[in-house]
Automatic annotation (TrEMBL), chain A:
Protein name: Succinate dehydrogenase, cytochrome b556 subunit
Organism: Deinococcus radiotolerans
CDD domains listed in its UniProt record: SQR_TypeA_SdhC_like
Keyword annotations: Heme, Iron, Membrane, Metal-binding, Transmembrane, Transmembrane helix
InterPro entries per the UniProt record, alphabetical: SdhC_prok, SQR/QFR_C/D, Succ_DH_cytb556, SuccDH_FuR_B_TM-su
Family: Belongs to the cytochrome b560 family.
Cofactor needs: heme
Database matches in Pfam families: Sdh_cyt
Coiled-coil ranges from the UniProt annotation: none
TrEMBL record, chain B:
Protein name as catalogued: Succinate dehydrogenase
Organism phylogeny: Bacteria, Thermotogati, Deinococcota, Deinococci, Deinococcales
Source superkingdom: Bacteria
UniProt source species: Deinococcus radiotolerans
Keywords: Heme, Iron, Membrane, Metal-binding, Transmembrane, Transmembrane helix
Primary location recorded for the protein, binned into one broad class: membrane
Sequence intervals crossing the membrane: 20-42, 69-90, 102-123
Classification via CDD domains: SQR_TypeA_SdhD_like
Record localization: Membrane
Stored Pfam families: Sdh_cyt
């Protein structure tokens, strides 16, 4: 791993969020796709998601996707424009801010569901 | 794996065309996925609750070919984007050649099965 201040953490977080999202995606494709095995099989998995760790976990998935998406845009700007590398540090703090806002915003909107259940 | 800042660097570093194509694919699919996935999260998580995502709701939604196409695009692009991203990590952290071979073999098999499973599911309705 290279040591390069903000760039190092941006890289590490991009990888970790990417791997976490991929893991979630694989579970998600299986659980939603399981409707082809019939209603009972699908609902058995689905009702498990009402447990609170899954409800809170979805907030982290949301924030992780937002981080990965906006940091990905930052990478694209760095790759394809002349000014991207010069402003990569400022852009990264922007990405962090957007991710935190997404987490707080989603938690704020979903608060009744998070504490009361679906 | 390519570590490059610009397209010109990437082109010079790539030993094969496929590696360069994956580098470009990551950027293009990523750009498309930003809209597809953020829209998907907003529509299916923020806007509606888990209790609305019943068996009947899924079947009804997928009866519309537009949603079928939307979901299939997410399925294909995100699995390929994720599989290639994980390949970068495997190549970086799994150092021994035989281990790397079977880790990749098992991993790509699971991804391929999920892609087939999801596609069959989407188009069987």
């Amino acid at each position: 791993m290279y040591r390069g201040r903000e760039g190092q953490w941006a890289f590490l977080l991009h990888r970790l969020s990417g791997l976490a999202i991929l893991f979630y995606l694989m579970l998600h494709v299986f659980s939603i796709g399981s409707f082809i095995f019939g209603e009972r099989f699908y609902m058995a998995i689905h009702e498990t998601y009402d447990l609170w760790p899954f409800r809170v976990g979805l907030l982290f998935v949301t924030a992780g996707v937002v981080y990965h998406a906006f940091n990905g845009l930052r990478i694209i700007v760095m790759d394809f424009t002349g000014f991207g590398v010069a402003y990569q540090r400022q852009m990264w703090y922007g990405v962090l801010l957007i991710s935190v806002l997404a987490f707080v915003g989603a938690a704020w909107t979903l608060y009744p569901r998070l504490v009361g259940g679906y | 794996m390519i570590r490059a800042r610009t397209l010109t660097d990437a082109r010079q570093q790539s030993h094969s065309n496929s590696e360069l194509n994956w580098w470009i694919f990551m950027r293009i699919s990523g750009l498309i996925l930003v809209f597809l996935i953020l829209g998907h999260i907003y529509m299916t998580f923020i806007q509606v609750s888990e209790s609305d995502a019943t068996f009947d709701a899924v079947v009804n939604k997928l009866a519309n070919p537009a949603w079928k196409f939307y979901d299939w695009l997410i399925l294909a692009l995100s699995l390929m984007h994720g599989a290639n991203g994980a390949r970068y990590s495997i190549e970086d952290y799994v150092r021994s050649r035989p281990n790397r071979a079977w880790v990749k073999g098992v991993f790509f098999t699971v991804i391929a099965l999920l892609l087939v499973f999801g596609t069959v599911g989407l188009f069987s309705i």
